[in-house]
Amino acid sequence: MVEVSTSILNVKKGEESATFFELEAAKTDYFHIDVMDGKFVEKDTYEKMFEYASYIKRISNLPLDVHLMVKNIDEAVEDFLALEPNIITFHLEACKNKEEVMEKINYIKSNNCKVGIAIKPDTKIEEIYEFLPYIHMCLIMTVEPGKGGQTFLSDMLKKIETLKEYLEKENLEIDIEVDGGINLKTAPEVKMAGANILVAGTAILMANRFEDIIKELKK
C-alpha cells in the first residue's frame, strides 16, 4: 500500500486552515514538514514550518512527517519533538561521523518518535546500509534539497531499486520515502522501483481537487 505525505512548504499564508482541512478530507496520510535553516540548504523555512506544524497539531490528528534539512540537528530535533511528530528524518550529510548518526537515531527513538535518514542525490545508497536495522524510514531525495517545484532526477530510480533489493535480501522492513518532483507522471516509476511513501507538494497543491490527485498517487 502506497501512502502520500503532502508537503505543506508552499501553502499560502492566510489559506492554511482551509488547505489543511481540505488535505485531511482528501485523505493524505501525512503532513510533510520541510524544515530548512538557510545553512544546510539555501532556503530558510524554519519559523514558517514550525508555525504551520504547530497549527496542524491543534486542528488535526494526522501524523506529522518532519524532514530536517538543517546543520544543527540537535536543536531542530528538540524544537519539533515538542509537537509529537510521527517521525523525524535528518540528513546523513549533516553528521560528521557514524557515532553522531547513531547518537541522533537513539535520541529520537528514546523520545517515543520514529526516526528516518535522508540522503541527497549525490550520496551513495550504500552509505546508509549499516544504519538501516535501527531506523524506520529512508528518505531518498530525487531533487537537490532546498527548493520546491524542481524536476525529478530519473537516475535516482536505480538508487530506490538498489535499496529495495538490499532490504529484501537482509529481511529488513522499513519505509522507502521519495521526495522531489513527484507527480502523476513520475509516481508510477517511483512505486515500481520500490518506494511506498511519496512526498508531493506542488502536484497536489496546484490540482483542482486534492482528493483526485491523492487517490491517483496512491494507486
Explain this structure:
The protein has 219 residues and is α/β, with parallel strands linked by helices. It has a single domain, classed as Alpha-Beta Barrel (TIM Barrel). The model has no long low-confidence stretch (mean pLDDT 96). The protein has helices at 16-25, 46-59, 73-81, 98-110, 157-170, 187-193, 202-205, 210-218, and strands spanning 3-7, 30-36, 64-69, 87-91, 114-119, 137-141, 175-179, 197-200. β6 (137-141), α5 (157-170) and β7 form a beta-alpha-beta unit. The N and C termini lie close together (8 Å). α5 (157-170) runs parallel beside α6 (187-193). 39% of the residues are buried. The longest helix is centred in the N-terminal third of the chain and has 14 residues, at 46-59. An eight-stranded parallel β-barrel has the order 1-2-3-4-5-6-7-8, surrounded by six helices. The chain contains eight helices and eight strands. Helices cover 37% and strands 20% of the residues. It is globular and about 45 Å long.
